[in-house]
Amino acid sequence: MSKRVKVGNHSLKVPGTVLARRILGLALVAGGVLGFLPVLGFWMIPLGLIILSIDSPIVRRWRRKLEVKFGAWLKPRYPRLAAWLGFNGAARSRTDGNNSKGS
User: Fold this and answer.
1) Which of 1, 56, 57, 75 has the fewest Cβ atoms within 10 angstroms?
2) pTM surpassing 0.70?
3) What is the per-residue pLDDT for 14?
4) What is the pLDDT of residues 17-39, one digit of tens each?
5) Read out DSSP for 20-47?
6) How many percent of the chain have pLDDT more than 70?
7) Sequence-separated (6 or more) residues with CB below 8 Å from residue 26
8) Cβ atoms 50, 7 nearer than 8 A
9) Residue 27 CA from chain centroid, whole number
10) Which residues pair with 7 in a beta bridge?
11) Looking at residue 103, what DSSP letter applies?
12) Which one-letter DSSP state was computed for residue 1?
């Protein structure tokens, strides 16, 4: 069964096994470091980190914090783009009172 990573309103299919996800994520990050070469690009680094965030709590926490900060920066400047990317309710889950873990 393949997993999905959701960022804003968009989701990506990723491989079902932990080993395949880690290999793919590390390969994308390594290829992104060589982004100055033709065919490879710097866009590969964030994509690799998103894929690695499925299995790594540290990377997942970093990605979520960055996503919330980016949404808070984007909403006042470009509200239509923020709505299209799905950042209208990005930080709402922590403050709407529906958190099952409590404070």
Assistant:
1) 1
2) no
3) 81
4) 889 888 988 998 998 898 888 87
5) HHHHHHHHHHHHHHTTTSSS--TTHHHH
6) 82
7) 48, 52
8) yes
9) 17
10) 10
11) -
12) -
